[in-house]
Here is the input.
Amino acid sequence: MHSFDRRTLLVSTTRAALISGVAGLVAKSPLSIAAAEPAKAFAAEGDAKHPIAIFTKVFQSHTFNELSDAIATIGADGVEATIRSKGHVEPDQADSLIPKLIEALGKNKKLLLIATTGITQADKSTEKLLTVLRDNGVHHYRMGYYRYEKPNSSGSMLQQARNAAAKAKDLAVMNRELGVVGLYQNHYGKDYVGSLIWDLAILMEGIDRQHMGIALDLRHLRAEIAGSYPSAVNVIRPHLRSIFLKDTRREPAAGKSLTESSPVDVPLGEGLVQKELFHDVLQSLPPAPISLHVEYFGQNAIPVNEIQPVVDAYRRDLITLRSWIPTS
Here is the structure.
C-alpha cells in the first residue's frame, strides 16, 4: 500500500510539463506519459482538446451495446459512465466489465472518457478501482461528494471543509502515483462541500490540478449563485479541470412567490447557463474531456423503448454545446 504523504504534492510535476507531454510526449516520467494517453485518444477523435462525454445515468437500463448505439446516434465522442454502487458497473465488477464496456463503445468509435465513481478517500478499494481504470486507458474519474453535517456535530463548517481537504490531498497523492486525474463536481444543495463554490478553494488548496481539480457544473453554479458567480469562478479558477454542462432557470413552485423559487432543469442555452460563462471557464482548462448532462427528463434509468426523446434532447443540446466551442 502507498504511503500518502501530503508533502509529496510539493514536488509534483508542473502544469507546463503536462501540457508539453500532451503535445509531444517530451516529458520522461511514467506519470507524464500516462497523463498524456487520454490526449492521444482525443486526437483520434479529431484533435479535440475537450472531447464531449454523455453522462450515462439515464441509460443504465441499456446493455453496453445499446448504450454504444445511443451515443453514436447522439454524436458525442464518448461517455461519462457510472462506475459506482447501483451504477452501470458495480466497482467490484469493474475488472471484468470495464473492458467489455470499452469494447462495446469502440464498435462505434466511442470512448470511455470519464468514470463516475463514489471515491472520496485513498484506501485499498480506491487504489484497486483506479488501477483498473488506468490499465484500461481511463485517466479521468469523477469523485464522490464530501458532505457537511450540522455545525458542532463534526466541528464548524469551515473545519469540516478542512477535514475534507485533508482526504482530498491524500487522494491526490494516490492519483499522482497512479497517473490518473480526479474531478470534483460542485453540486446544488446545502449539504454538499463545494456548493458554496468558494469552499472548493479550501478543498483544493495545495493540490496540483494535474492530479485533481474541479469539474465545474455550470447548472449547479448558477442555481446557487446569482450576481456574484463571476467572482466565485475567479476564486477557484486555478483549480478548474473540466466542465459539466446542463442548464436551469428558477421558477416559483405552485402557489408560491418568485422569492420562493427553485431551480428547474431546461435545455442547454434556455436558462441561466449561457455561452459567455462557458467560454470564460473553457479558456481556463487544460486538455480534458467535458461532460453533457440532460436532466430535464429526470435522473432515473429510462427503459430502452422509451429512450428516444432523451436521445433527441441530447442531440439538440450537443448541437448547442458545439456551437459554443470556439473553432480556433
User: Anything to note?
Assistant: The chain has a mean pLDDT of 86. Residues 43 and 78 are 13 Å apart (CA to CA).
